[in-house]
Amino acid sequence: MTGAGRGLGRAYALALAARGARVVVNDLGGSLFGDGTDAAPAAAVASEITAAGGAALADDSDVVSEEGAASIVTTAVEAWGRVDIVVNNAGILVPGALPELTAADLRRHLDVHVVGAFNVTRAAWPHLVAQGYGRVVLTTSVGMFGGEHLISYATAKGACVSLGRSLADAGRTRGVLVNMIAPAADTRMVTDPLFRRQSGLPPLAPDHVPDPTRDPERATPMLLALAHESCPCTGETLSAGLGRFARVVWAETAGVVATDLGPEDLLTRWDEVVDPASPVFPASTSDAVRAREARIATALSDRTG
Ligand code: NAD
User: Fold this and answer.
1) Which DSSP category does 21 fall into?
2) Confidence band, pLDDT 50/70/90 cuts, at residue 109
3) Inter-residue contact 21 to 12 (CB < 8 Å)
4) Does the Cβ of 68 fall within 6 Å of ligand 1?
5) Per the omega criterion (within 30 degrees of 0), is the bond before 216 cis?
6) With 80 as the cut, is the pLDDT of residue 299 above it?
7) How far is residue 92's CA from residue 108's CA, in Å, rounded to a whole number?
8) DSSP strand pairing (237-241 vs 244-248)
9) Does ligand 1 come within 6 angstroms of the Cβ of 152?
10) What is the pLDDT of residue 103?
11) Band of the pLDDT at 240, cuts 50, 70, 90?
């Protein structure tokens, strides 16, 4: 479990441990903006688990480093002989809009969210495939829908979905299910004063009282479902938090099949191009290609037949 020293990751780790999972509590212990390190948050959560009678080991590796990510997996395998569940939850959030936003800002987000999840999952993969069983979760966000002040974060969170869907495709015949969670909770990622100021959000009132319906625990049931032996899906993205659970879909409209359309014709038929009736929800790239070819073949045969 990465980023498990605070916020959502802490809630997930405690809930998994309460159900008998032995947990490597990884957390670099940096700031929301990704600065600094601190071994204390991971150590505190691991102690909380062991004090409650569970099994946990603290780890303060940086998931961005290949060695750090591999050591999280090695810790689990050396202590307990296997790894069944990988939860990629570590994240940073630095608001930023053009023109100030730099490529370095973008890279920092891609590193933690995408490369970090890749590194940890890659290190666990041979173990999961060898045992023919695994549950992998990557963390995306409503940020994937895109936002002016969240360009880096949104880009990284969108990339997490394609990474997870590709891993799901690789795991499909190997007993490894890979899904994405888009959580929501009032962690520091929402309440941090500097973040709120830079994002143009109003400050929280000085007498602000945390709302328990916005606690990370409200997202946790979905994480447990995706980590469960009976997880019913792979390659899916599920929203969770604030008392709501939902599916996020990637779909393609039926579209228009024609080889002789110019741009003006397309503009005339725009409503048909974007008509959301009878969409397809491809599970993978090859699935999308198959669906596209089938649509074209059907349209052409309808015309000739
Ligand atoms: P948080 O800041 O409380 O927790 C994130 C943790 O990740 C921190 O403890 C941090 O130290 C750790 N971390 C950061 N970089 C790391 C690295 N390189 N290696 C190891 N650990 C690292 O925030 P949170 O809200 O609990 O966020 C958890 C995840 O959920 C993140 O991926 C975040 O993007 C995502 N998310 C949160 C919300 C929300 O409403 N809070 C919404 C959508 C997505």
Assistant:
1) -
2) very high
3) no
4) no
5) no
6) yes
7) 9
8) antiparallel
9) no
10) 97
11) very high
Q: What is the pLDDT of residue 83?
A: 98
Spacing of C-alpha 188 from chain mean position: 18
Any atom of ligand 1 within 6 Å of the Cβ of 237: no
Strands (E) in the chain, as ranges, are 22-26, 55-59, 85-88, 134-139, 176-183, 237-241, 244-248
Residue 34 Cα, ligand 1 centroid: separation in angstroms? 10
Residue 116 CA, closest ligand 1 atom number = 18
Nearest CA to ligand 1 atom 34: 91
For the chain, list the domains and their CATH numbers: 7-248 (3.40.50.720), 263-304 (no CATH)
- Looking at residue 266, its pLDDT comes to 97
Tokens of 31: 């700031």
Q: Decide whether any atom of ligand 1 lies within 6 Å of the 37 Cβ.
A: no
Q: Is the CB of 3 under 6 A from ligand 1?
A: yes
| CA 155/CA 141 separation, integer angstroms | 10
**84 token code pair:** 């069944």
- Which residue do the tokens 């074209």 mark? 296
Q: How far, in Å, from the CA of 75 to the mean position of ligand 1?
A: 21
pTM (two decimals): 0.97
Per-residue pLDDT at 200: 83
Nearest CA to ligand 1 atom 1: 7
DSSP states along 171-228: HTTTTEEEEEEEE---SHHHH-HHHHHHTTPPPPPTT----GGGSGGGTHHHHHHHHS
Q: Is the CB of 59 under 6 A from ligand 1?
A: no
- Give the mean pLDDT of the chain: 96
3-class DSSP state of 182 = strand
133 is catalytic: no
Question: Which among 153, 171, 216, 240 is annotated as catalytic?
Answer: 153
